[in-house]
Amino acid sequence: MLPTAISTLTVRVLLFASYAETLGLDAIELTFDGGATVADAIARLRALPGGERLPPKPLCAVNLLQVRLDTPLASGDELALLPPLAGG
Amino acid sequence: MSYLVTDQIDVGALLALVQSPERGGVACFLGTVRNHHRGREVVRLEYSAYEAMAEAECGRIVAEAGSRWDVVVALRHRIGELDIGDTAVAIAAASAHRDEAFLACRYVIEEVKRRVPIWGGGGGGGAGQRGSGAEDGRDGSDEVVISSLSESSPS
Question: Which B residues in the span 45-84 are in contact with A, Cβ-Cβ below 8 Å?
């Protein structure tokens, strides 16, 4: 397999509630060259217009499970940024 | 099993799911929409959710309760627009004796509040919907003052 075939990583990011309003979107695809962590995705989002209003360490989930920010991402992952929870 | 519902929660039906002749202790918790939040009037409340994760997380919480205690637990959380007094979340826990029923019921509501991605606000929001900007009392909407349920909720 060519190195280039494994060097690109694409994840789908979901934004909810106040975070969706902050960025003016509720879903976006991010592509990285090489590996990336949840923190890398957050940094990319915070570089978007309005993204500086996102907290640097938001609650995050990958594929429906809460994760730490140093969690590595895999291509096809669904990353969700979760505003402070108020369920119940 | 769907833990999230859009229609009114039928508490009697929920209790019926857990009651049985061998389970004599039944604990029930209802979180209802109260009419005030941090000194502001609440007129109605809309819950939005990351539905796929909320369903999965509710399932994990119920399973955890079932593994920690000898109980049967039923859980429903309503999403969408709710009025004052509406039941937003209902938990029924049944066991042979009351101690385990109370413990499991308390565990489930605390974990739901801590882990389930549901937000109360004034205008919907979340992936697939228009964002609301509402969360846990920080919404700036003029028409709809939001609330989040807590220990002080009427029950």
Answer: 48-50, 52-54, 56-57, 77
Domain boundaries along the sequence of chain B: 4-41+50-116
- pLDDT (tens digit, 9 = 90+) per residue, A52-69? 999 999 999 999 999 999
Alpha carbon dihedral A81, A85, A87, B5, in 10-degree steps, equals -10
Identify whether the C-beta of residue A28 lies closer than 8 Å to the C-beta of residue A57: no
- Mutate which: A11, A16, A78, A81, vs B, most B CBs within 10 A: A16
d(CA B144, CA B84): 12
- How much is the CA Rg of chain B, to the nearest whole Å? 16
- Residue among B6, B26, B142 nearest B86 (CA): B6
Write down the pTM of the prediction.
Answer: 0.82
Residue in B57, B89, B134 nearest the CB of A17: B134
Whole-angstrom Cα distance, residue A87 to residue A75? 30
Q: Given CB atoms, is A26 within the 8 Å cutoff of chain B?
A: yes
Given the candidates 1.10.720.60, 3.40.50.1000, 3.40.50.2300, 3.90.1170.40, the CATH classification of the domain at B4-41+50-116 is 3.90.1170.40
Supply the mean pLDDT for chain A: 91
Does the ipTM surpass 0.90? Answer: no
- H or E segment to which residue B41 belongs: strand B40-41
Query: Whole domain around residue A37: which residue ranges?
Result: 3-82
Please count the structural domains in chain A.
1
Structural domain includes residue A44: yes
